Structure formats: structure tokens, C-alpha cells
Input
Amino acid sequence: MPGETTDPVSRFLEGYVPPAGVPDELLQPDGEVRPVWAGFIKRLASMPPEKLAARMAHGDQYLRDAGVHFRRYGADDATRRDWPLSHIPLLISEDDWQEIAAALTERADLLERIVADLYGENRLVSEGHLPAALIAQNPEWLRPLVGVKPRSGHFLHFVAFDIGRGPEGRWWVLGDRTQAPSGAGFALENRMATTRIYSDIFAGANVTRLAAFFRAFRDTLMDMRAPGESRVGILTPGPMNETYFEHAYIARYLGFALLEGEDLVVQDGRLMVRTINGLGPISVLWRRLDAAWADPLELEEGSRIGTAGLLRTVRDGNATMVNALGAGILEMRALQAFMPRLSQLLDGKALRMPNIATWWCGQKSERDHVRANTGQMTLSSAHATGLAYETGNIDPPEADLDAWITRMGPAIVGQEQVRLSTAPAFVEGTLRPRPMSLRVFLARTRDGWRVMPGGFARIGSSPDSNVLAMQQGGRVADVWVIGRQTEPAETNLPRPDGTFARTPPGALPSRAADNLYWLGRYVERSEHLVRMLRAHHARLAETDTPESPLLALTRQHLEVFGCRVDHPVPEALVQTIGAADGSAGHVSDRFSVDGTLALRDLHHTVRAFAERVETGDDAARAMSVLLRKLSGFSGLVHDNMYRFTGWRFLSIGRALERAANITSCLATFAAPDAPAAGLDLAIEVGDSVMTHHRRYTVATNRETVLDLLALDELNPRSVLCQLGDIEGHLDHLPGSGQHRQMTPLSRALLKARTDLALQTPGILDTDILRRLSAEISDMSDQLTLAYLS
Amino acid sequence: MLYDIRLTIGYSYPVPAVGGRHLLRLEPLERPGLQKCLTRRLTVTPEPVEWHHRRDFFGNDTVEITLASPHSECRFESVARVERHGSDRLLDVSPRPADLARYIGAARGLDPHSPHHFTGPSPRITPHVEMTHWARHATAGAATTLDTVRALGERIHEEFTFDPNATDVHTEALAAFRRREGVCQDFTHVMIACLRGVGIPAGYVSGFLRTVPPEGQPRLEGADAMHAWVRAWCGPQMGWVEYDPTNALQVSADHMVVACGRDYADVAPVRGVMRTSGEQVTRQSVDVLLVNEPDQPGSVPVIT
Output
């Protein structure tokens, strides 16, 4: 049979055997490749395996470089996980897609009508179509919002549906996501990674692009703003959220501010953002925060991530929430039991795409049905909002299940167990069928609902349909909607996957400025500590007298920073670097990915060192490693970071910290009664050994050291140079340009700088240095008061 | 009955608060036929920069205020003259406890008085098997829903010790239940949890209680605080019946209602968010004085 062995596709698909009883996306029941996959599979099959593996590695590399991650919650902590890309995209023909899109558009409209009734007239309940108990007991039915009409006229603006293909080949809705659906940004990243893997195939495959969908939604959000200077923001719960990376990514991609609850403040019933220019109006929030946490005054009282008074702005019609607060009620699993009837009632027809069969056990006949069919049912909480295979499943007791169902009654639902279709995944070098579900995104635009042509597919980690969740090791794949047309896309379309026009940067939120300022300070402080520790340990390694006066001084100086040198890598250093990493995590939408990764690497390294490094020479060498990594980070920031206002805060933080540290270093090591070797140490910690050598022909003495490290404006390590830099940055901050009027901060700075500039090395004594230290620390308070609080 | 009510609540902060936002439910409610406010005044010091009045979901008068300038003290004062009519002790026409579920199921609609809001968990109350079990014992043999409510209230009054130092405003119902002590808020939460556990819809009422002085002694001014009690749904005919477990009595003309809700979180007199640090100190005083000439409002000076 030479014909068989030479067909590369057959060889490639060898061992790809879909389980019986469910359809496979790739193969027809007769084992032939479906037409929509044919071209793609042929190209894959013709590639040498090692080349294919290299391409996939290339896609993974892209995701790592871009820092794409999500958080996985373990028993006691949340750790970052790399994005689990399944390298084989899911291919769907445009015809199939059109039907999916039409059915889900109908469903989105139906859901809008239901939620509008639940927060409006409530006729579905009062006329007996929905049980009152079900709504009243659901924590997502938010009483403070009952009777409140959304400013935009709609509750739903951006929704997602999880759908899967069942045994008969039909698509089923597995879950409705209306609270704050995540994944749209990840879908974009999947696309970026996948196009890198298959750059040549993708170009000719008529894959519908995603950018136009995002552009349309972005324009819609902009249109919903109040007139004037009002803006749009993305509201995130913060960096500890599972999908924070995506929030920051979407904010960057669409050019909207990424905001946390404390960035917002309510004034006279209007929503405002705290910025370094003062309060600025904002009227549209695409929220990624669950509604219950949005306002501690009226909703979850323990919330520390919300904004007090937010509900009032909604009630007064001054803010549009995407989606409306309270829309999460639609995710309630028990609602699926009523959807077929509600569709008949409200639309006069059956659901175009059914959802998985669901029985609410609060009604006798339904309960009896569940009791009689427990073998084919998943039992779960009626109010659960997760997906059938994700969360909310409760463990029914082994014994006496029947009595348990009767007792739980209205609290539970039974759902028909779904067996999902399989799609190809690359497992250990070969193609394998794995269960699959799709997440499809819909955005309401000026012209009605628009469906993202793609979304993402979840691919199970094992052949079992119940293991689709990413938290359990499932993977995600890009979805390619393959068009019929072979001719190139129309040319009058905007450039697909292109960038948006440059928009003027909005005012910097105070919290972001604060984080950048402290990032600058922590990084600089880390550098100072590392240099001082290196100097200490290098001398310790060379001496027989660890009690020498100089080592006593370094010990004392480090202790001011909480660093105890009896541990070679003091906890305070690990914490300072951790704080820098933490600050960067809060501003990752304004900060280069490379910089974030460099800091994370630094943090990781210092923690590893803390475990194993030993006192003396080993510690000195470890500090050199940290120093190189710190320099790498600083290089990235100063070479690559866009010179926006945030960069100035980062730079001010760095300069202020450096000025403070050098000043106190000089006060200690260049004091008249300090040991003579202290001067060399100061020069070393000030990274100015070479400069000193070049500028002064003599060995170090007190005057040369003070001249170089305090007064020489050309030395980027000197105090005077730092103060000059800060002055330069202040000129660009808001409030400084008006009538050249001095602020308390600029006045304090000018005084400190002038006082220092008028000194000579001969008269600059320890008292003056100590006073300067105090002045620098006051400047930080002034800056905080003026811009950061 | 005509009462003059004065409530003051004061907070002091060790570090001045730089602004804050509060939701206040401090003024007696207008309840047609039962409770009429002849005069009502709420004052806040320092002067709020924003003042916004509305009715919340359960129909309570709610004021949202914003304080702007830094302040280390904050004071709320609610003064009112209230005419209160007791409801006559009605004939007990509540259903048998076993039949109540059917009546609840038949109640459609989600208006604020619907029993459906008051059957399951709410922000501060989670029914617990331990309390439910105890409640079943305590009310075994009660012939009607109302009997069940009374039996439970009396049992709590008998078994629990009133002790203001045993619990605080954050104590959970189960903790107070296990200790068998607390204040009116705890007794109310425990009773609500028990009632919901045995299938009777129950809610929280905050308000004022006239303190009857012991004979021959002057009334102690300022010795009281805001009070709390229970309302239970006793079927479609009787509707909501209020019961005070702290004093083991069915509520009548001695209780003045400020707010109703599912539990304390819905009716908290002062719910606030402010930017400060450190432990705050709270002081509260309430005076509820009976006015002698009920038909001539204004003839007796309002205490301010």
C-alpha cells in the first residue's frame, strides 16, 4: 500500500481517534477531514515535526515575552501561571459561525429583556413566570439598584457565552456571562501568538480579523461619555485578581485608563478620577469588578476595592456601568431552567440555540424528574454563577440522595450531563482529540450586537469532558472563523489589527503616580542597600577583625534601613525589592513588560539568594549579581520608557531617594571622626571610584569626597545633581507653569539646592548634611500632599 | 402616645479623618395609621458639603452625606416628636407552622414587604443547624405561626443574659447564640436566624423604646441606646408582626420604628467610609420622653 504511506495527512493523523458518541471538529463521522480544516491540516502535515515543534515554541516565547499570565488559586496562595496556549487553533466555517452569531444575538436580547424586567416592573415574577424566591435569595439581585434605569438605556453592553457541541452536532449554551466576562483580551493574545506560529498559513487562510470588533466597541464606549472632558475607564479589582493581566492589556490596547476603586471619588453625584491635576470627570466604566464589591456604602460593606457613593452616580444617571451593576443575576444557574419558557413568553418562539437542560428543584415535578434521573445529572447550587464544569458544584451525599434532593429543594438544580465534541490538541508531539467548549463575545455597538469573530476555545486536559477549566490544567486555543472568499479583504476597511490613532494622554491618576514614585524610590533604595552590603561583605572577607570601626559603621548605617547584616541577604532587602515589584504590579498598564519581567526576575533572584548565600565573599558576589540586574532594569526604564508624566514621578522618586541616601552616607562615612577607610567606602558606594581617580590626582581625602559626591553637578551620583534633576521634572508637572508661581514644594527644593550649591567642601560639615537629609524627607511629604493623595 | 425623641451619636478619631461619606438611617419613619412624625430634624457636625435624601429599597428614609474638611469628631443628632398608635392585639389568625410554606410559595412579587426577602441568608445572618435545632425544640407544640414566634421570643428572653460588654456591633448571630448573651442586636439576630431556620420569614427593625422609669424614681436621661427587635411574617392575613425578644413582648405603642430590613446591615444607623486610621470611639445617647398633652403639638417645647 505505497499510496497510504506517502499521504502525509494520513500519517499526520495516525492515532487521532475521536471517542465514539460525540462529534469531532476535525474529522467527519466517516473519518475524512472536514473541508474547513483541509488546507490547514495539509500544511501542518507537510512540516517536519521538529520544525512544527520549533514554531510552537516560538508562540510560547511570544507569550512569555509579553508577560501573559493568569493567577491560579492554590490552597494557600495565588501564583502566576503562564498562559496555557493550545497550539492548534479551532477552525470554524463562516456559515457555522453565522448561525452561532445569530442565535447568541437573540439570546443577548432576551437576557436584556429579562434583566430590565427584574430591575424594573418585575412582571416576570409577579405574573408567576419566575419564582420570587429564586430572585429574592440570589445575592446578585442588588436591591439598591431596583427601579434604577441605566443611563445608557441598556443593562448589557458586553456579554460572553460558553457554548459546546453536543452528541447530535448541535451547539448548546453552557453558561451566560453577564457580570464582567473575562477573556476578550486573552483572545487577542491567543491570536497574536497563533499568528506567530502559523504566520505563513494564517495569511492565506481567510481568517476573519478581530481588531474591527474591538474598534467598534471602543467607539461605542467613547460615544457613551457625558459631553465635555469626560472619559472612559476600565475598573479592575487590582493586581491580585485572577485576570488582572488582561485588564491591563485591554486598557493599553484600547487606550483607556486602568482604574481601581480608590482612584475614583464621587462629588455631587458625579463620578471623578483622582489625578495629579486634581479631580477629572469620568462617565463610563467597563468594569471587571463584581458588582457586590463596587460600593461599600450600599453593597458589600467590607469591600476595600470599591468606591463609596458609586451607586449614587448610577442612580443619578451620571455614570454608565458596562455591564450595569446587578446584571450578574442572569448568570444564576437556575435561570437556565426557565429560559425556554421565557423565550416563548417574550419572543414568541423557541430558543434558537438551547441551553443545557436544567431543572430547578424548587418545583415538585422538576424535583421528581431530577430524583428519578440522578445518574445523568450534575447537581449544583441553584444560585451558582460558575460554569457547570467549573465551580458551584456541590457534593451530594452518597447515601440517601433522594431525601437530600427533597430537603435541599429550591437551593439546587439538576443539569443534564453534557458530553462535548472533541477538537485536535497537540499532546506530546501528536494530535489528539480533546473535549472542547467555546467562549463567544458580544458587544453592543451603535448598530446593535456585534459578535467577535473568534473568541477562544477551552481544550480539556484529558479526554474527560469535565476537565475543561484552566484552573484544572485545561488549555485555550485561538478560534479561526474561515471565510468563504478567496479574494483579499476589501481595501476600504480600516487596517486590520492596526493600532489606533495617537490620543493625547489623559491626566495621570494619583494612585498610578504614587506607585511610580515609590517604584523609583524602592529600586534606588535597593541599589543603595546592595552596594552597601557588597562593600560590607567584601571588607569582611578580607579582614581578621570583624569588629573593626569601619564595619561597625556599615552595620550601623544599614540598620537605619532595617537591614541586619548578621544575615547575608537581609530580610529588609528582600522586602524592599518585593515592594518595588509590588508597585510595578499596580501600574503594569503604564509600564513596559520587559521592565516588569526584569523586576520579577530580580525579586525571584533575591529570594533564592536569601536561602543559600553565605556571609563574606559569597555575599559580596551575590550582591554584584543583584546590582547587574538592577542596572539592567534602570537601563530599560531610562532607554525605553515613554517620557510621560508617570516617568517623571518614577524619576523624581529615584533622584530623591538617591539624594537622601548619599547625604546620609556622607554624614556617616565622611564625618571627621570616621575611620579613614570610610572615605573610600563612600566613593565605592557612590559608584564614583573611577571618576574620583580621574578628577583628583590625589588619594581620597574628606574634601575630595564631599566635593565629588555632594557638590559636583556633573557627577550623576552627587546630591546636587539629583536636586537639579528633580527641579527639572517639577517644571513639567501640573501646577508649576502657572504664572511661575512657586509651590511649597518648589520653594523647599530651591532652598535646599541653593544652600547646598553655596557650600564648599571645607565648610560642609555633618550638621549641614543632617539638616539637608531632613529637608529632603520634607520634600517627599510635600510631593505626596500636592500630587499623590 | 406622643413622644419627644432625641438621639445623638458621636465619633472621635485619633487621627483626623480627611473627609468621609456616610449613609444615615436615624429618623423615625412615617407609618400611616401607626406612627406619625409631627416634627423631625437631623443635624450633622461638621456641616456636610453634600446632603442627599432618598428612600431605600425597604422604604426607609436614608440620608447620604459627605464630609469634606478634616475632622477628628463627628456628631449626628436626630430630634423628633412622634405620635404613636398601638395596634390592637389582633385575634391570632396565623396559619399552622406546617402550612406557612404554602402561603409563602403563593406570595408573588418582590415588593419590599414580600416574605421572600426574609427567608434565607442575608448579609449578617446565616441560618445555622445548631440554632434551627434549638428553635425547633423551643417551639415544639406551638399551634400557630404567631405562637411559634412568641414561644421563641420568650425562650430567648429566659435563657439569654443581657450584657452590653459581652458582644459588639460585629458579633455574629451564631457566636451570640452560643454564648447565650449580648444586647438587643444580638437577640434580634439570633431570633431572626432561628425563625428563618424553622421556616418563618423574619426581619430586623431598628428604632426607639420608651423606657418606663421605676416607680418613684426620675428617669435616667441618656441611659438608653437605639433599640432593635424582630418582625415575623405570620401568613397573608396577619402579615408582619413585630416582637421584641429583649423584653419578651409583642410590639405596641412603646416602640418607635426607624428602619426595617433583613438584618443590621440593611438598617445600620450610620454606615460610613472615611479616610482615617486607628480605632474610632463611639458614643450614643437616646432620650425618649412621653409628652403629656398629645393633642396639642407645639405646646410643649421640643427638647433640643
